[in-house]
Design a protein that fits this description.
By secondary structure, the protein is α+β, with helices and mostly antiparallel strands. Helices cover 27% and strands 19% of the residues. It has 2 domains: 3-65, no CATH class; 81-136, no CATH class. It has helices at 3-11, 87-94, 98-110, 125-134; strands at 18-24, 31-35, 48-51, 57-59, 81-85, 120-124. The two termini are 26 Å apart. Bound molecules: zinc ion (2 copies).
Length: 149
């Protein structure tokens, strides 16, 4: 598939019991971890997500209870925020997708994120869509998926 996809996967350094998620804690900006061991306290077997920095935790189907995905302030755009690895800026640049890379960097910065200083950032959903419009195959499009037939 794409270099981007490969880059994201290899960036994850596996630890014995946790995996790094490409999501940022809404409370403190820390990185979300997913517990890998099957010994979580949930009877339903849902994965356990915790913040690496502030230790907030939750059992949920997805990390979005802790992270910025889907969150929006009052009067904000319809789409809310999206967590996104800032390494995408560099990956796009390395692929020669200069325009897209710069567009993505602008979107990060408009959310107060300096892609050079953090691994995970946030962009607004419509800002990310503007970058996607320039390039069709970067990850995260499942945000906009339609209901199955
Ligand atoms: Zn946190
Ligand atoms: Zn997220």
């Amino acid at each position: 598939m794409t270099n981007l996809k490969h880059g994201l996967t290899s960036q994850r350094r596996a630890s014995p019991s946790f995996a790094l998620e490409d999501h940022m804690c809404k409370a403190c900006g820390g990185r979300i971890l997913r517990q890998l061991t099957g010994s979580g306290p949930t009877p339903g077997g849902n994965p356990v997500y915790i913040c690496a920095d502030c230790g907030r935790g939750s059992t949920a189907m997805g990390p979005d209870v802790l992270c910025w995905c889907g969150y929006r302030f009052k009067n904000q755009s319809l789409f809310g925020y999206n967590c996104l690895p800032t390494s995408l800026v560099k990956s796009l640049m390395e692929e020669g997708q200069v325009e897209q890379s710069e567009a993505l960097e602008r979107e990060f910065k408009s959310c107060g994120i300096d892609p050079r200083n953090t691994l995970i950032g946030i962009v607004t959903g419509d800002g990310y869509q503007r970058v996607l419009d320039k390039r069709k195959d970067i990850p995260g499009k499942e945000q906009t998926k339609k209901s199955p037939d």
